[in-house]
């Protein structure tokens, strides 16, 4: 049935939009003045108040700005879909922390000491409990370089069994790149080598007090040092860069290994924890980039499709004796509209995949 909007409804709609635009650009006091200045009908004022109430309740879960509570005691800050720059201060990856009854675990520390400090401030706005664990999900600088901001907490810094070596090998490259790309925001950034390793055979359980986390170290996939964190209390799986949502995935490990990891997750739909000795269902997934997803199977399926397309098309080129530059010019171009930052990373993905599949 065709919907007919009355002038009154349009008026409300326009005012609603105007107020929402104000909410995005103004602080609350300015917003109030603006709203009071605007002479709306009684209905519009009611709408405005309802919207303010809604916004207040939404920001009621924010921990001092930037962090959002996505499950009880589980805080998440979303990175922007951009490359490193001085203006975004390197805050391009998702970071978070989980609060138990006795202690706190940080998940990823951002691109710099400064970003690490900001994460620490957010934790302190929520709780005074000790920060005993800093979990680094993998080596990439947007996830791993803020760890030294937590040194005064003397936490155990935990990573995949390959993380220490991977970071040590890239230390000067990562630190120099961040200095160049972030400028002052990279000041005082130092590399922290993990003090505790998770093996691919054993996994690791951490007790935050009435709350167990289960860490899984994977065979080579996005990198050779990917770690996921499963919060058994809420069924939240922090997959980090094993899943990219909206932003194009980046292959820095093994295309085939990554496909295998995704196949395993999609087939089981649950995580085998040491703690309760049963496979616990995954309720929501936190990607390394992009929003938290409850429809995580379809988010993984989209990423799987992209990587599988690349693999299939490259295999065809290799079987005909084609070259890497032919592959870069032709493979996976149908996927362009599906991913942000496609032009920046797709060619690199094809190059990496070609080098891997050539020796298959
Ligand atoms: Zn990464």
Summarize the entry for a quick read.
With 360 residues, the chain is α/β, with parallel strands linked by helices. Helix content is 41%, strand content 18%.
Question: Could you characterize the architecture of this molecule?
Answer:
This protein folds into 3 domains: 7-59; 70-306, Metallo-beta-lactamase, Chain A (4-Layer Sandwich), CATH 3.60.15; 311-357, no CATH class. α7 (255-268) packs antiparallel against α8. By secondary structure, the protein is of the alpha/beta class. A 7-stranded mixed sheet has the order 1-2-3-4-5-6-7, with no helix packed on it. 41% of the residues lie in helices and 18% in strands. It is globular, with a radius of gyration of 23 Å. Zinc ion binds at residues 138, 140, 222, 241, 288.
CATH architecture title of the largest domain:
4-Layer Sandwich
CATH superfamily of the largest domain: Ribonuclease Z/Hydroxyacylglutathione hydrolase-like
DSSP strand count: 14
Number of domains: 3
Ligands bound to this protein structure:
zinc ion
Q: Using the alpha-carbon principal axes, give the shape.
A: globular
Question: Features of this protein?
Answer:
about 350 residues, alpha/beta, Metallo-beta-lactamase, Chain A, 3 domains, seven-stranded mixed β-sheet, five-stranded mixed β-sheet, about 40% helix, binds zinc ion
Ordered list of secondary-structure elements with their pairings:
Elements (H helix, E strand, L loop, with lengths): L6 H19 L2 H10 L4 H18 L8 E4 L2 E4 L17 E5 L4 E4 L5 H14 L4 E5 L5 H4 L11 E5 L2 H20 L13 E3 L5 E4 L4 E6 L9 E5 L4 E9 L10 H14 L1 E3 L6 E3 L2 E6 L6 H24 L4 H7 L11 H16 L3
Parallel strand pairs: 4-5, 5-6, 6-7, 11-14
Antiparallel strand pairs: 1-2, 2-3, 3-4, 8-9, 9-10, 10-11, 12-13
Helix pairs in contact: 1-3, 7-8, 8-10, 9-10
Bound molecules: zinc ion (ZN).
The site of zinc ion (ZN) has 5 residues, from loops.
